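Subject: sequence -> C-alpha cells, single chain

Hey, anyone have a minute? Need the predicted structure for the following. Not urgent.
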Amino acid sequence: MTLVLYFVLVAIGLGLLVKGSDVFVEASAGIARNFKVPTFIIGLTIMAFGTSAPEAIIGVRAAIDGTVKLAMGNVIGSDIFNLIFIIGLAAVINPMKINFKAIARDYWVAISGPIVLLIMMVLFNDYIPRIGGFIFLIMFVSYVLVVIKNARQQPNELAEEDPHLNHIPRPLKKNILFAGIGLALIIIGGELTVHYAVNIAELLGMSARLVGLTIIAIGTSLPELTIVLMASKRGENELAVGNIIGSSIFNIMFVLGLAGVITPLPVYGGLMFDLSFLLVSSLVFLTFVLTGKKLGRVEGGIMVIMYLAYMVYAIWW
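Reply:
Had a minute. Here:
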C-alpha cells in the first residue's frame, strides 16, 4: 500500500508540474505582451523554457537534497524522450516536412551541450566541479542574448504561430496573479515528485538515475508532448521541432548548470551510455531531415522503436 501511495503522490506531483507550467507559460506570455515584447522572443524563450520549468524545479530540488543523479537522469531522459519519442510519434501520426535552415543554429547549440558534458566527464573522474555548472550557465546566457538580438531584427517571424499564445489578452494584474499561481504549483509539484520518487527508488531498489530517466523524465515531458502534437497537427513543424530543441538547450545548459553550481555533478555508471545515445539520436534525426527533407511514418517509427529499445536496455541492464 505504501508503494502505491508513493506512486499516486508522484503522479499528483507530476500533474501539478504540468498544469503549473502551462499556467505559468500562458501568464508569462501575457505579461510579455503587456510590455510589448515581440512575439518572436516570447515563442523562443518563454515557450521553450517555460515547458522545461518542471525539469528546472526538480533539478534544483534534487541538488539541494543531495540526489543530483535524479536531476541528471531527468534532464538526459527528458531530452532523449523529447527528441526521439515525441518527434517520432508526431511524425508517425502526421509526417513532417522540416526546413533545417530554420532550426540549424539552435540545433547545433543543443548538440553542443551533451558534447561539453562528455568532455567534462573525460577531464574529471568522479565529480564535475562547480566551474562546470558556471560554464553551462554562461553558454545558456550567451545563447539567449543571441536569440534576443536576432529576434529584435525580425520581430514578427513567429507572430501568432504559437498555439499557447493565441488567447484573449488579460490585464497585467491578472497575468501576474496567474504567473504566481503557476509558479506555486510547479514548486509544490517538484517537492512532491522528488521526495516520493526517491522513496520509490529505495523501495524498489532502483537507482536515482533510472527513476529520473523513466518516471520523472516522461512525466516532466508532458508539456512538450502536448505542444508538439498540437503544432504538428497544424502543420507548424519548425515550431514543433524548435520547441523540442529549445527545451533541450534549457535542460542541459540551464538546469544542469544551476544544479552544478549548487553541488558538483557526479560522474556515475551509465551516464556515458545515456549521453552517447542522446548524441546518436540527434545524429539520426539530423540524417533523416537532411536526406529526406522530412520525417515520414517510417522514420518516425524507427525513432520510436529506438526509444523503446533504449528504455528496455536502461531498465534491465
